[in-house]
């Protein structure tokens, strides 16, 4: 597990989110493995942030309640399957959901989305680039369409005059 440990904490900056894998560790799916997510990841490696499951296609073993109670914070999937719905309102379930919410909010607040305590405003550079490309393409298409229409009208006018 050394490679995963290095990927989590051994680079400039700090990992803010990790994805639990889609497989099983022994008889427990990794998305609900308390030993892996709480003891190793959060305990030994000191990870602070959110843990997201790999795709939860409602296969029956990625049960949201089990995941949240064992250190997974966010389910990547959809809410249409019974295994994805949280119905338990017990105190332990509420505490687990509060912890998951805290981990998700901590990750968002420390992710760079907020700069100097303020939410990022305006468009990202990538969005600006795509808008600029769209505008340039629109202008080119309008010019080409105009040229085609003008030429077509001239040909039609010549054909009528002949």
What does this structure look like?
- The protein is an alpha/beta fold and 162 residues long.
- The protein has 5 helices and 7 strands, in the order H-E-E-E-H-E-H-E-H-E-E-H.
- The longest helix has 37 residues, at 125-161.
- The model has no long low-confidence stretch (mean pLDDT 86).
Topology, please?
Elements: H1 2-9, E1 17-20, E2 24-25, E3 28-29, H2 34-44, E4 50-56, H3 64-69, E5 74-77, H4 91-109, E6 114-115, E7 118-119, H5 125-161
Parallel strand pairs: 1-4, 4-5
Antiparallel strand pairs: 2-3, 6-7
| Helix count, DSSP H or I runs of 4 or more residues | 5
How many domains? The number is: 2
Helix proportion range: 40-55%
What is the oligomer described by this structure? single chain
Q: Secondary-structure element order, as H and E?
A: HEEEHEHEHEEH
Structural class: alpha/beta
Distance between the termini: 84 Å
Principal-axes shape call: elongated
Describe the strand arrangement of the main beta sheet, using strand numbers: 1-4-5
Rg over alpha carbons: 26 Å
The count of β-strands is 7
Largest sheet: 3 strands, parallel
Mean pLDDT: 86
- The residue ranges in which pLDDT falls below 50 over 5 or more consecutive positions are none
* Approximate strand percentage: 5-15%
